[in-house]
Specification:
The protein has 479 residues and is of the alpha+beta class. The chain contains 13 helices and 20 strands.
Length: 479
């Protein structure tokens, strides 16, 4: 039976009646779904003065419930209520980020080390197949006069040589023969599970969402492999004799898949996504804009090389320049605090022959010219302090141009400059105001998924020029 697909927008307010009607759920099924979503923080009540309760989705991703698939798309998408292409791109971003960081997005909004969840494990198995292929059971044998490596120990021990001038010559050799047993039990089982995983995604209409083609690697039936207990026993036996780390991890995944798939398949609710999409937005921007916080000082593009005062610290990462707090207490020796300031993105860029230091803060906000819909005073303070922390290093290298920028996502293909925020007492210290720039999320995601820096698309240049043009316009108005 074909599953029903519905779209909802992150943080848009909905009443129960609206959602029940949209999802085609009875009162009983609707209440069950609501209870499950509320318990894991995917759905939260909205405070308001009206009589009818209102809720919003604090989640980006996919929700499975019975024969229903709910696709929660990001809040900044406003042009359509059914963003098929945009949502597919967002899900590929989530998928890739989870894979690269070796973390899985959990409904709590926290990133934890990989744990079993049905859809994430299915995707992991298919990802492993795309990279490494089907599990291979390699058999090493010896053969007489084959084309492989000569096994000298076996040749010398079992074949009589021909001597000439006391030098032994061997007319025959034992050689190594490597056989890839494609009919081994584990190889056959792996093919069956991959086919099952592909069919699961295909049945949920998710293959194309993740850019995958259907897999039909096996036409065997489930009963050909024995009970779950027997399958796990065979996989553990294979794990005991397998020394390749990638294959060991695959065997562990297969064991986990067999042990838990039945119980998880019986659960009414399945989620794949996050209640903290801002973490993905920060990571995407960091890669796309060429974050250099972890780059050693010796590798930075500075106007005239590393200053002599910093050569002893040449291997120190850029972020290591930010000082930590020093505690001087009456009843203890002075000690250094644990925490420090951590910008989202910091990088050096060349613009019109000049080195510019850019500090980006990736803000997952839907822009609105309203104080309660914009970053708060804490975010503003920190952005100024980031510049202050790097100021001695910048001055030592003759870098006078600094750009402090809040990056927010927007639809479309063009960036938009929206002004700046100023804190006069910090501006008086010679620090730069914080610029507000809306960047096209789809373009950022393209660079992230294709592993390219956004700089190649000239958007860094465009951002800097937009800021400079608006600064010039503002200055001319005061003349």
């Amino acid at each position: 039976m074909k599953l029903a697909n519905r779209f909802v927008r992150e943080e848009k307010p909905y009443t129960k009646a609206e959602l029940f009607k949209m999802f085609g759920l009875s009162a009983g099924a609707g209440e069950e779904l609501f209870s499950l979503l509320l318990s894991c923080g995917v759905l939260v009540p909205v405070r308001q003065g009206g009589s009818e309760p209102v809720f919003k989705f604090c989640f980006v991703g996919i929700i499975f419930f019975d024969k229903l698939i709910i696709r929660c798309f990001p809040k900044y998408i406003r042009s359509t209520d059914t963003p098929h292409a945009q949502f597919a791109q967002v899900m590929n971003v989530i998928h890739r980020y989870g894979r690269e960081s070796k973390a899985e997005f959990r409904p709590s909004g926290e990133q934890e080390h990989m744990e079993f969840s049905l859809l994430s494990e299915v995707l992991s198995l298919l990802d492993d197949y795309a990279e490494h292929g089907v599990y291979s059971n390699v058999i090493h044998e010896s053969e007489l006069n084959g084309g492989g490596e000569i096994l000298w120990d076996k040749t010398i021990g079992s074949i009589d040589p021909f001597f000439s001038n006391d030098t032994p010559f061997y007319m025959e050799f034992h050689t190594r023969r490597v056989i890839d047993d494609e009919q081994s039990y584990v190889t056959r089982l792996h093919k069956y599970i991959l086919t099952e995983c592909s069919q699961l995604l295909e049945g949920a209409d998710l293959l194309t969402l993740f850019g995958m083609a259907p897999l039909y690697l096996c036409d065997e039936r489930r009963e050909h492999f024995g009970s779950d207990g027997y399958i796990v026993q065979r996989l553990r036996a294979e794990l005991d004799i397998q020394f390749d780390s990638q294959k060991q991890e695959l065997l562990r995944r297969l064991i986990r898949f067999i042990e838990r798939r039945e119980s998880l398949a019986a659960e009414p609710l399945h989620l794949y996504g996050t209640t903290a999409f801002e973490a993905a937005w920060e990571a995407v921007c960091a890669k796309a804009f060429g974050n250099q916080l972890k780059a050693p000082l010796k590798d930075l593009s500075l106007p005239s090389g590393l200053n002599a005062d910093y050569r002893s610290k040449s291997r120190l990462p850029l972020i290591g320049l930010i000082e930590r707090s020093n505690w001087c207490l009456a009843d203890a020796k002075p000690f250094e605090g644990n925490g420090t300031l951590i910008p989202d993105i910091a990088a050096f860029h060349q613009h019109n022959g000049e080195t510019i230091f850019v500090i980006f803060d990736a803000k997952y906000y839907t822009y609105s010219p309203s104080a309660d819909r914009l970053p708060g005073i804490g975010d503003i303070d920190k952005q100024y302090l980031y510049e202050l922390a790097f100021k001695p290093f910048l001055e030592a290298h003759g870098i006078t141009q600094v750009k402090n920028i809040f990056l927010m996502p927007i639809e479309g293909t063009e960036l938009e400059y929206k002004g700046y925020v100023e804190l006069p007492m910090l501006r008086a210290l010679g620090l730069e105001n914080i610029q507000i720039v809306l960047v096209p999320a789809e373009k950022i995601y393209e660079c992230y998924l294709e592993n390219e820096r956004y700089e190649k698309s000239c958007f860094i240049k465009g951002i800097i020029e937009s800021i400079e043009n608006n600064e010039e316009n503002a200055a001319s108005k005061h003349l």
